[in-house]
Amino acid sequence: MLMKPSLSLTISLAVALNLFSLMAAPIPDDAKISGFALGCQAYTFNRFSVFEAIEKTAQAGGKIIEFYPGQKLTKEDANLKWDHHATDETIQQVKDQLAKFNIRAVNYGVVGAGNAAEWRLIFEFAKKLDLYGITTESVNDLDVIEKLVKEFDIRVGIHEHARRPNAPDYKVWDPNYVLSVVKDRDQRIGACADTGHWATSGIKPLDGIKLLKGRIISLHLKERKEIGKQQPDAIYGTGVSDVKGILDELKAQGFQGNISIEYENNWDHSVPDVAQCVGFVRGYGAAAH
After folding, report:
1. Fewer CB near the terminus (10 Å): N or C of the chain?
2. Is the pTM of this model over 0.85?
């Protein structure tokens, strides 16, 4: 004789299924180094093409890549740009290049949209690439974004550039402000922590990471030689950003997003420098065992 499930069991199952549906797909372990999904923001190689950026990420030892809109697709055709308007054929070409070098695309940004229709196009593009997240500074569009986050199950991180003394309306440089605009939103909306821009703005990166505990979607992890000054990026472990402390804190927080090395220095020959940053994270993991 079959027993009908109790009302309480039915409700519990419904709640469990609802919670499961709110969980965005994690980045797989084979895309991680020392427990972190680590690779490059393609902007590191902005003097090259998307295809070259994927190859250079692999050469540096990275496992993942974060794309940005507007990069030329191939070195042969500088007029063909890569962004969310790409055709399915172009997307497949990029997927083939990713597979060739065993690199996983995980994020896209910093990107904005002119209207709700374009935001939908961005999320559709991200879904086709099976991305973990999208990065933006469009805090005024969060009502539209939040609906799409729920529909597509893709995370969104609010990025911050450096403080602009002559533009007081630019507030996302401050992690306190970012927290204020995301704290009551869907848990899949949080921050893309750019430690370099924080440092330029006079914020110690580790302080920002701690402040945004539980709401960090991704990082543009940068090393700097000094806090409070605009400087070129440095190799991990050679500055004052306390990269080890950041990794310790992320680990303690159970961070599951991507760490993008966005190395804005030595533009034409940065692969060896980026490789040393990757090596620092590998060494961090080795020291923990």
Report:
1. N
2. yes
